[in-house]
Amino acid sequence: MRERPARPERATRAWRNMITPGISDTRLVGREGKAENTVVDVGGVLVGGQEIVVTAGPCSVESEEQLLATAFAVKQAGARILRGGAFKPRTSPYSFHGLHEEGLKLLAQARRATGLPVVTEAMDTRYLDAVCAHADMIQIGSRNMQNYTLLEEVGKLRVPVLLKRGFSATIEEFLLAAEYIASGGNGQIILCERGIRTFETSTRNTLDLSAVPLLKRWTHLPVIVDPSHGTGLWWLVPHMARAAVAAGADGLLVEVHVNPQEALSDGEQSLRPETFERMMNDIRPVAHAIGRRWPLGTRIASKDDLPLHPQPQASNRATPDLFRPAK
């Protein structure tokens, strides 16, 4: 029998790079460095395991009343981690930029009241100590994905990190940003696909769900999806959340506000608590269909109690809420 000729070294290298891009530079976060999946412990909540973990809360911490009402609502629906921005990077210098240290204190208060671990963004190395003192996980936002000074400092910490994909970043650039953190000694990293900027203007970003199976193939780190920033439209969030779970995401990051029309930031992409609860119930069979566990809320609404085709409610939003039950 004729022997198969050896594959040229150049071809072998090209094949390996197709399987895992930039493999020589992702030695810590790539699959070739570690085959088994990493599970990140966020205040006792395990992300990257069998259960799909939902993180939810307001885009910005605005007040004690707003934060606590939202926190209790998302916990009741099944969220396992509370999100909320104390420091907000905004395009306009005149927009609301968060409550800063006061916002961090409110997040810590919400954690004590609900028992939910907290994730919030650190925009600058100057605020890392304050964020670490009040949060269970540090978020590196899309605008800071390639802030290498910040990544290096976070790498020195032993605190879980939620790294969001830059809105113009390739998958390889995303992985290399994670490698910066891991190279400092901090391997507790969760990757978040939150949409990329394309020529499409119908949505805020284009949610790249193909990134989920790609990342799951190329890295051992947990991968979650943010359908709120990925679409910018609240009524699209439940649809894309279901699709993200079907694509293999380890979790979701969803913006929820008790009164989105009065939100100081991103109200147009925030769900009302009742819509969030309906979404959580609707995703459960999708999770079970792919063999994953789905979190149970403290109160589970029966689908039998909800109309299949609810009538649109009066709202100043441009699109009717298809997921809100009629009164």
Task: Sum up the structure in keywords.
TIM Barrel; 10 strands; eight-stranded parallel barrel; alpha/beta; 327 residues; 33% helix; 10 helices; two-stranded antiparallel sheet
Question: Care to describe what's here?
Answer:
By secondary structure, the protein is α/β, with parallel strands linked by helices. 33% of the residues lie in helices and 12% in strands. It has helices spanning 9-19, 64-77, 101-114, 128-134, 148-155, 171-183, 211-218, 227-231, 237-247, 273-289; strands at 40-42, 45-47, 53-57, 81-83, 118-121, 137-140, 161-164, 189-193, 223-225, 251-255. The chain has an 8-stranded parallel beta barrel with strand order 3-4-5-6-7-8-9-10, surrounded by 6 helices. Helix 3 (101-114) links the parallel strand 4 and strand 5. The radius of gyration is 20 Å and the shape is globular. It starts with 8 loop residues before the first helix and ends in a 38-residue tail after the last helix. The relative contact order is 0.14.
What is this structure's SSE topology?
Layout: H1 9-19, E1 40-42, E2 45-47, E3 53-57, H2 64-77, E4 81-83, H3 101-114, E5 118-121, H4 128-134, E6 137-140, H5 148-155, E7 161-164, H6 171-183, E8 189-193, H7 211-218, E9 223-225, H8 227-231, H9 237-247, E10 251-255, H10 273-289
Parallel strand pairs: 3-4, 3-10, 4-5, 5-6, 6-7, 7-8, 8-9, 9-10
Antiparallel strand pairs: 1-2
Chain oligomer state: single chain
Shape: globular
N-to-C SSE string, H for helix and E for strand: HEEEHEHEHEHEHEHEHHEH
Number of domains as seen in the coordinates: 1
